[in-house]
Each structure stands twice: as C-alpha cells, then as structure tokens.
C-alpha cells in the first residue's frame, strides 16, 4: 500500500515538524501538550489514509536530516529528544486510529454474524455483506457448533487455535469461523463436508473434549439459519438424552424431532406405557433407568447390568417388575418398540421429574 504514495504524499503529515526541531534546539525545551496533540492527530490521519507506519517513520527521519538545525549552540540532545517525542506521539495517534478501525471492523463483523444466524436484515443487503467475509449465500452452506466446559468469545485462544488449523489445512475456502453465545461456530460450503469434519476434530481438542453438532447443508441465507438451528437442537437433544458422542449430525437425529412433533401424543404414550412404573417402590426413575440401559446396550441384559453396577439377577428382576407393572415385556419385539419409544419420549420430556 505504501508503495503507491510518493514523498509529497507524506509532506502534509510532517507539517510543522522541522520547526519543532529548530525550536527545541534553540531553547532546549520539551514539546508542549498542544504540539504533542497535533502530532497524534497527524498520526491518526495518516493511518486513516492507509499509509504505512514504517514509511512514515522513514519520512520523519529524512525530514530531520534535511532540516537539522545548524549554527552555534545547537543541542544535539535537545533535537533528538524533540524528534523522539514527536515521533512517539505520531505513532501513538497512528496506533489509536488502527485500534479504532479494528474495533469498528469487529463490531461490523459481529453485527453481520448476528444478522446472519438470526435471519435478520434484508436478504439482498445480507448477501452483499456476506461476500465481504467470503460467503456466497446463493450456494448451500452447513453450520457446525461446538460447545465446551466454558464460554468462548472472539478473542479466545480456542478459536484462534482452530482457525490456524483450518487455514493450514484448507487455506481460504470461504469458511467463516466465529463465536456465538459462548460456542464456537463454523460456516462452510455445503459440498465441503471435510471442512466441518476437520473443524469438529480440532474443536473437540481445543475445547478439551467438547461436543460438536453439524447441521445439514441448506441453500440461501435462510438455509444458514436453518442449519445453525439444527446444530443447536442436536446439542440440546444430546444433553437431554445424555448422548456422549463427540460429533453429532443433525441428519442422524431426525427421528427425535419427528417423535416430539406432536407433544401431546408423546405425553399420552409416556403416561400410558410408563405411568404404572410410579407404583414401584422408589418411584418410576430407577425402572426408567433400567429400560434406558437395556435399550442402549442393544437389549443385552449382562451389558445393561454392568452399566448400572447391578448383578444380572438383580437386573433381570427389574425387567420382570417392569413387565408386571406395565403389562409390556421389554424382551418381546412387539412390546419393545412401544416401550423404547416411550422411554425416548420420557427423556425428551424430562419425565418423571416434570409433570407432562
């Protein structure tokens, strides 16, 4: 950028500099507050004009050589001290302008991300803004969301670590990495599943074993919102169903939204199939956990007993108790489907802890 500017371009940012050096040599004084403020203001203007700081420092040095005070009584120390003060103030103003520009860019990026993930703003304008960040919203995109044991923000080392790994592996592939509500978020073209799979691997490591959910590819700006919401719902399902897989794909969990689409019907099934378990000593929860372990272990009693730290005999007794109370035999394929669906519904509806 600096190569596009000639020496005359720098002149207006050196205004009054030679005079300051001459006056400092004659009087030995330090620069006044007003003079320092004027140097800072020139530094800010130079940064806003897109000039490079190294080239500006070189211009100051050249100006000092060209206008070095001469004659009797010239104080080299005073001139050098004034030059150092002037350039320090100039650099301070330059850096202040840069920090302001960075903050503005961060705020603009955050506003865009909020608008994109919440489906706000005019779609045409949103698409134009998206191109600035490498996204073409006319294509399909998929969203992956990672959560860990802590909340993450834009400056978090975990995000930087994942970003470095992705750039090193894939370069610039129209990938947008960010944070939202304390989670890491990756938006990638829908036909580049390997990007999101690698993001999941890196995010799992960076978050210390966190969980990652990947939404399905969807077209358009609304598709980004849809994929993001699918990923969030997958994480919510994982928490409610105690799914411990490190990577969840929304496409593999579609049965759960289907099961809960008619909440009242699911509540009726839970009451009908599992309600009698409330009559057991200790309530329904221990027997519900028994069914959960049984189905999660592939209906293998020995494995389910091990998971619950029970003897096989004690576990078998529990299954018999369930059969007696509900009239449904968990080992019978016909009854098993009803009971397993009801168990899933109970976990989704947080029954029996909550009334439904």
Automatic annotation (TrEMBL):
InterPro entries: CdaR-like_regulators, CdaR_GGDEF, PucR_C-HTH_dom, PucR_C-HTH_sf. Residues 287-343 form the PucR C-terminal helix-turn-helix domain. It comes from the Bacteria. Residues 119-237 form the CdaR GGDEF-like domain. It holds the Pfam family HTH_30. Belongs to the CdaR family. This is Regulator of polyketide synthase expression. It comes from Streptomyces azureus.
């Amino acid at each position: 950028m600096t190569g596009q500017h000639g020496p005359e371009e720098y002149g207006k940012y050196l205004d009054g500099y030679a005079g300051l050096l001459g006056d400092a040599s004659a009087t030995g004084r330090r620069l006044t507050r007003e003079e320092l403020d004027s140097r800072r203001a020139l530094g800010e203007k130079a940064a806003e004009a897109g000039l490079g700081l190294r080239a500006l420092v070189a211009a100051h040095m050249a100006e000092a050589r060209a206008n070095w005070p001469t004659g009797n009584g010239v104080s080299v120390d005073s001139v050098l001290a004034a030059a150092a003060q002037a350039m320090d103030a100039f650099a301070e103003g330059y850096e202040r302008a840069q920090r302001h520009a960075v903050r503005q860019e961060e705020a603009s990026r955050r506003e865009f991300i909020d608008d994109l993930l919440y489906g706000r703003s005019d779609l045409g304008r949103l698409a134009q803004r998206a191109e600035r960040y490498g996204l073409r919203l006319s294509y399909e995109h998929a969203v992956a969301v990672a959560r860990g044991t802590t909340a993450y923000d834009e400056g978090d080392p975990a995000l930087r670590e994942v970003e470095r790994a992705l750039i090193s592996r894939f370069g610039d592939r129209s990938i947008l990495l960010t944070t939202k509500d304390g989670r890491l978020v990756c938006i990638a073209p829908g036909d580049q599943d390997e990007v999101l799979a690698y993001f999941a691997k890196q995010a799992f490591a960076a978050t210390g074993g966190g969980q990652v959910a990947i939404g399905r590819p969807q077209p358009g700006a609304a598709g980004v919102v849809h994929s993001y919401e699918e990923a969030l719902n997958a994480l919510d399902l994982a928490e409610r169903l105690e799914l411990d897989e490190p990577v969840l794909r929304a496409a593999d969990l579609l049965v759960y939204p289907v099961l809960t689409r008619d909440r009242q019907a699911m509540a009726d099934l839970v009451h009908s199939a599992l309600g009698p378990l409330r009559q057991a000593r200790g309530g329904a929860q221990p027997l519900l956990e028994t069914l959960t372990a049984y189905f999660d272990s592939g209906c293998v009693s020995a494995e389910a007993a091990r998971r619950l730290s029970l003897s096989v005999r004690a576990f078998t007794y529990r299954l018999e108790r369930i059969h007696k109370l509900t009239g449904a035999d968990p080992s019978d394929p016909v009854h098993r489907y009803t009971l397993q669906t009801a168990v899933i519904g109970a976990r989704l509806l947080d029954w029996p802890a909550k009334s439904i």
